[in-house]
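Input/output pair, single chain:
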Amino acid sequence: MKSRRIKILSILLTLCMIVGMLQPAAVYAAETTDTGETVIAEEIDDSVDESSSGGGNDAETPVDAETPSETETPSDAKSPAVEEATGVSDVEAQIATASETTVTIDTYLSDLEWTEQSCGGKSDFPNGTAKNTNINGAPMQLVVDGTAQTFAKGLGIHAPSSVTYNIAGKGYMKFQSYAGVDYSRVNDYNNGEAVIGNFIVKIDGEVVAESGEMNPSMDAHFFDVAIPADAETITLETEIGSAQDWSDWGDWADT
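Output:
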């Protein structure tokens, strides 16, 4: 049905052009538009009617006739300018999202080199602080949620002890660790030994967290300490407890 209408209008256009009844602008619009069949057909019909009533070459171009520069864009089509602007916006949004994303990387103190350390029980443990084992070289064990668990990473000490790390400019955000008396000393505790008076975390020499007195039968104390952006050092210390200074094997586990 649509193709027939176009064919008939084409014949009318040809006849009207022969007798000089249509303005060039109307002819131009009709000739150069191949896809806007309905719109162009209505414009031509109006032009033909006005030409017939007005007569001659004095017929005016319809007020609502479209010039080539005003051709409508289909509603579902996107202009290049819109697509380009949308593309830039998408990229900026992706960059903004990426800049707000924080990637967390775990770093173990036991993988780093300390700046200084000291450890009790020097006659038995002349090498001082141990990495990734308890002070005696065996796997670290602490009670967590009522059950003794083994840890592969951390520091083994004998109280009293101190170990310091330089963290300036490293971007570290927090320190986390389980701390307690190694579970292998539980029998010594029953004999009045193996008590550590306190596990202490210091940042730039200031105490920021502590555990209180610990023994091997207790659940490990979990430290979760925020590190200021301008922090320069972190120090882990232990103090002797109320019992005899024997078997005070402490673990900073998962550290």
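DSSP finds five helices and twelve strands in the chain. Helices lie at 2-19, 24-32, 37-54, 80-99, 186-190.
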